[in-house]
Amino acid sequence: MKMRSMSDAHRHHETAAVLDAHRRVLAAADSDDPDAIVAALARLNDLRAKLDQAELRLLTGARRHRVSWTRIASALGLRSRQAAEQRAARLAEQVGSGVPEVECQHCVDTIPMEALRRAVRETYAQLIADPSWDGAYPRATLAREHLHAAAQAPPGSLYSLVKHVIGDLSGVELIGRPVLVRVAVARLREAFEDAAPAPRHPRPH
């Protein structure tokens, strides 16, 4: 019998937490206790965020298994494949920036770091929209995972993670990938160079 990985255990715990939060919110809707109702309202933002994360994982999994955007759009009740793609991109950006306000890295980003973070989210959104990305090259999945981590990392870690992504991408043949992927990667590289820390010059004795 195989032991579950830590990530599997985390996902199981997260799913249980979402179901429990959903149950509490529904129970409060029929409550006669105004405090319980207000508490349930306060839980809604957290519940929405968890559902967004779950939806993004489902979309990513669907695309990895080459499920068409048209079929995904139909499942989501959307009118077109473009609407489904836009939803995935919005969720990727939303989930990537969905840290508590007191820890919001966007608020402490310098202008170059803000541009780098935007490029990270744009690139991540394009990679999850490419159904054959993960299986194309040995380091392609690693690049996508580093981008996901970088989207919500503090500025110092952001730059370091993107440095890893740039290294991962050096082993990926981009010719033949979707044009939006190539454009996003080019912008990421440019933003990475712009965000590079200034060289320190030794003080004269």
- How far apart, in Å, are the first and last alpha carbons? 67 Å
As for the number of domains, it is 2
Strand content bin = under 5%
Structural class: mainly alpha
- How many runs of DSSP E, i.e. beta strands? 0
| SS element count, helices | 9
- Biggest pleated sheet: none
Helix content bin: 55-70%
Give the SSE string. Answer: HHHHHHHHH
- Low-confidence parts: 1-7, 98-109
Instruction: Write down the overall geometry.
Output: globular
Q: Give average pLDDT, whole number.
A: 78
- Radius of gyration equals 20 Å
Describe the structure.
With 205 residues, the protein is an all-alpha fold. It folds into two domains: 9-81, no CATH class; 97-197. Helices cover 70% and strands 0% of the residues. The protein has helices spanning 6-29, 34-64, 69-76, 81-96, 111-128, 133-136, 140-150, 155-169, 179-194. The protein is globular, with a radius of gyration of 20 Å. 23% of the residues are buried.
